[in-house]
Every structure is written in C-alpha cells, then in structure tokens.
Amino acid sequence: MNDRAPEAFEDLQPAASAAARPGGIVPCFLLHTGQHYDREMKESFFRQLGIPEPDVDLDVGSASHAVQTAEIMRRFEPVVDTLKPEALLVVGDVNSTIACALVAAKKGIPIIHVEAGLRSFDRSMPEEINRVLTDQISDLLFTTEADARINLEREGIPGERIHFVGNVMIDTLLRHRRHAVPAVETLTAYAGRPTVDLVGEDYALLTMHRPSNVDDPTILGRLVDSVSELSEELPIIFPVHPRTRSALQRFGMLERMSYAKQVVQLPAVSYLEMLGLMVGSTYVLTDSGGVQEETTALGIPCITLRENTERPITVEQGTNTIVGSDPDLIRSAVREVLLTGGKAGLVPEKWDGNAAARIRDVIVAWMHARKPATAGQLA
Question: Which residues are catalytic?
Fold first, then answer.
C-alpha cells in the first residue's frame, strides 16, 4: 500500500507499474482513494476478490461530501501530473468518481465511466449529482442496462459515446458465488452456536446504510420498529455497517433494537460472507443499489427501503419492490413474499458475467483509434 503524501509519487514509474500487471492489453495503474475508510473492510474485499494492492492509495478517509471531494481532488492531481495517463476509468457514483473525473477533465484527460446513465431522478441524493456530472464530462460511457441510453441521450450525450455492456458487479458475483461462505459459518463465527439454532434454515437479511435512512432519527426509528416487528415472523440477520452502528448509538437505538430477540446483529462482514448470507436468505431488506442488482441476479426477493431507485430494471424485470420507510408498505411486501414466494424476476440482458470483457474490447479499440502507434496507459 502506498500511504505517501501526494508530492511523493515522483518515484512511481509507469513502466514498472504496467509490468506488475502482466497479460493486460492496456497497461494500467490501480488507484484507491480510501473514501471507504474502514481498513478491515477494505482489506477483506481486496483479498477475497483477488484485487492487487493499489499502486497508489490516497488514504482520504471520512469527511463531509465537500471536504472529502476536495481532498480527493487535491491528492489525486499530483498523481495525474506524475503518471500522465492517456485515460481515466472511474466506476459508479461515489465522491471518488466525480472528484477524480473533475481533475482529469480539467487536465484534458479522457474519462471512461462504468455504470453510466443510471438515474433515480432524485437530486436530493448526492450520488445522483455525482452520476449526472460524471456522465456529462465522460468520453466513453458504459451502461448496465439498455434504458440507460435513453437517460444519457436525453441529457445530450452523443450516442456514439455510449456502450451497453452489462454489469461488472454481476461479473464479480457469478465468479465468486461458488466461494460464498455458508450462512451457518458466518453466524457461528460472529454470534455463536445458540444464534445458529435460533435462525435455523429460514431467515431474512437486512442491510442499511444510506444517509437518508440512518441520519434521520425519525426515519431510522420507524425502520427499527418495522424490522423488530417483522422479526417475530422470521429471524432477521443484520450485518451493521459502521455508519449505521454510529447512528444507532448516537440516537440511542442500539438497545431498542436489541429487544427484538430474533434480530441478529453482526459486525460488518466480508464480501463472501455477505454473499453467503444473501444466497441463503428468504428475502432481503436493503437500501443498497448493489444489493438490488445482486438479488435480481440471484432470483431472491428484494424489498428496498427507499423512495426510488437508480436501478429500475431490478423492479421492471427483477425481484425488487420499492417500499420506502412506510411500515404498512414494508409489512405488505414481506407478507407477499412469505405467502407467494415474491416476484419471479428475470436476469436482465447481458448480466452474464462478461461485462468486463466487453468493456476491455471497446477500450482497446477506442485507444488504438485515437493513437494507433501505442495502446497507451490507463489510470
């Protein structure tokens, strides 16, 4: 890991970094901003998914949206000045995405955006702002669903920049599903044998971390009460995100949730542990966009605790139902799952595990078209 000050990257040589990644058609550098700042979670994801250690780790950490975005830009700029990449590839909708894209755009470096065109049409979501602005300054836009092209073209993005390739997160899921940690092992490791006996074979899974849910004590309290009530019918396993745990403590709700004896609180778990919990669940309650996609790919009923979604294909074709924080809607959706098994969704087009290969092929052709003599370098 490179925990160095930004001005200390002069010794990072492109040839050395490219050589460390044999077999790649386009030499690349891997940069980790450190926006997701829980070190144990970061290290478990890198280890389990076989991601190489980043060439550069900005180690930004937690802060407000403005401070975090500005700090990423401040630390990223000297890296760009040193490496002089021919393109920048960014993924998703987090602060790191827009911060790095803005630096590249102001320096005339082409931007490649993976997961482009997703829209919730809710401008109160910071992620929506990040998505829209990143798409506007990107040169290549890779979409996970066909309808994303409509959103992009409506916003004036030329059609030739847009490529429908599928979902790289589903690539990861399909590749690692056989390595998922069984739920019984995760429960035994974190909560002990009595909890395993309590949960048995049938359980629901809860994930919750969105600011709109956990930063508002009224909404969070409503969700805590709903989850407690639902657990009377089916045990609920709840890996608690660090942000959520902090909010529950701040608002005095950790003890309130502990009264629900069939809500099993776990610490934040690794990717393979979460995948195992998801695969074995009867249904999932979540406010995560990624979990909405993963449950659709796995065919597991998903009840989304948000007022909208930027992944509408999971509702239109998949297993997802949007309920917000309304206790009646939550109860109704869960009752439907328990009575009928929930929505019988389809796996969306091109969610087949080959999205990354399609992205690679487009990038290679694009880079050769721009500069035929060399494949260039990608950051």
Answer: 209
